[in-house]
TrEMBL record:
Protein name listed in UniProt: Lipoprotein
Domain of life of the native organism: Bacteria
């Protein structure tokens, strides 16, 4: 009986092996862009849209994105209801939003990532905002996370 249980366990382990996904390593390469390589129009767009999202916490008014600014998935996920819920938490812990300070610009094969340090009135606030711009010059993602001095490229993967 014990042998049968052991054999069944071994068969289950063999049957549950994980799939390997082949991925082009070029997709994972991330390089920091120097000041001269940065598209200033794209940088301004990323800053304005990132700031517009975070200023919603101060004003409680959100101007919805249009299809010339963001991708459809960002437009669908960035609703006033979701922002209000997030903003309540942010205001409680971090105070009022002040501004965004650009920390770096990173490029992958398919996107440019603008990394901002989000500044708030409370000193305990140490947040980061990443704005992802795709090849069509549309914002493809906006992510808020805790600030880390070291840029973690793993957090850029969608």
């Amino acid at each position: 009986m014990k042998k049968a249980g052991l054999i069944i366990c071994l068969l289950l382990l063999i049957g549950c092996k994980s799939k390997t996904i082949s991925r082009d390593t070029e997709d994972l390469k991330i390089k920091k862009i120097s000041g001269s390589e940065i598209n200033t129009n794209q940088q301004q767009k990323a800053y304005e849209l990132g700031k517009r999202v975070l200023e919603t916490c101060n004003t409680s008014k959100f101007k919805p994105f249009n299809d010339t600014e963001v991708t459809a998935s960002v437009r669908e996920n960035t609703t006033e209801e979701r922002l209000t819920k997030t903003c309540q938490r942010f205001r409680q812990y971090y105070g009022s939003f002040i501004d965004l300070k650009l920390d770096g610009v990173y490029k992958t094969k398919q996107e440019v990532v603008y990394r901002y340090h989000a500044l708030y009135t409370k000193k305990v606030a140490n947040k980061e905002l990443r704005v992802f711009v795709n090849q069509d010059n549309l914002i493809s993602a906006i992510k808020s996370m805790d600030w880390d001095e070291k840029f973690d490229a793993k957090l850029t993967e969608q």
